[in-house]
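Lab channel / #folding
Pinned by the channel admin:
"Please post every new chain as: sequence first, then the structure tokens as a reply. Keep commentary short and put observations after the output so the thread stays searchable."

First post following the new format, from NK:
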Amino acid sequence: MHQLFSKEVEQDFLRRGFSRRNFGRLASLLAGGAGLSFYNEPALAQLSNIGALPADAVKINANENPVGPCPEALEAIARVSKNGGRYQYEETFTFARTLAELEGLKPNYVLPFPGSSDPLHRMMLAFTSPTKSLVMGDPGYEAGERAARFIGAKVHKVPLTKTFSHDVKAMAAADPNAGVIYVCNPNNPSGTITPRAEIEWLLANKPAGSILLLDEAYIHFSDEAYGSDLVAKDKDVVILRTFSKLYGMAGLRAGAAIGRPDLIEKIRSYGAGALPVTGMVAGTASLTCKDLVKTRRAEMKKLREEQFAFCDKHKIKYIPSVSNKWMIDVGIPARELNQKMAAEKVYIGRSWPAWPTYARITVGTPDEMAKFQKALLKVLGA
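Reply from TO:
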């Protein structure tokens, strides 16, 4: 078998239904990183076909936070960069310990990563297989789906409900042999919440042996409770967190997987390396910055509701969101809207096959949103 894997990992793969021929693709998944087509949001953003952007472009297509890191994070980066010639592993330990303390967990429940794409794909390796499927909402964030299909796992896509939450009952019933049930909450792309009571119902009624993967990349923008207490109760759940969204660190790369130690160990075994020390110290500084989440959440809510008011005024159909993005439907294919907006130097998000006339819009700065509104009215008027 492939030398990349330990004997224990190889045996686990075979037990879960992988053939020896699968190991080449599994090795590619681990070693390929960002070069693989399904890997992360930048790869998915290529679907918008934006290419090189003009200097004065409005870029509201990738769920980024243009505010950037907080001042405390920037100061921490400046300090640690002077010793950038060293790995400084202790900063990763500090980051994990700080996050664990804030979540009310022991440090061994937290495993740091450069963002949340890496652990998302490791979860597919660890818990899906040709005999263990992935169950997810539709539309939903596709990176896990692409990784699961790449290694030969089946994918069951369950439409969102009429209120745009995950249909937890249908997801629980989708496959008695499900390996992972993936819930992004708030959802990407819709920005909508699946209520806590439904998350708890899913945990209580999911197929035995399956793992609930709760992606909380956007949870800080909402008023919803975090799922950390479910982890503290040692439930079959792994939570993904990233500092790319509210904390404004998409380019710095910091995140974590949070879960029961035995589950965390299963994804730890697929390789490791030194994490970017700039991301680790910026993450720690952000976590300890008083009122940062509260302040940025309020600022985002104000900007977001201004966009909803604009849509209401001009009778533009949209889905109410509690995140940093929302979806609009102007009655034409979203790809066509993308092209027309790009002609105005405004670059909006991609569409999803389940909702081909909806385009995802990231909430940018006030100036960016003013330019977006002007361009959209021009396109609609034309």
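NK: Residues 32-39, 45-49 have pLDDT under 50 and may be disordered.
TO: also worth noting, The two ends are 60 Å apart (CA to CA).
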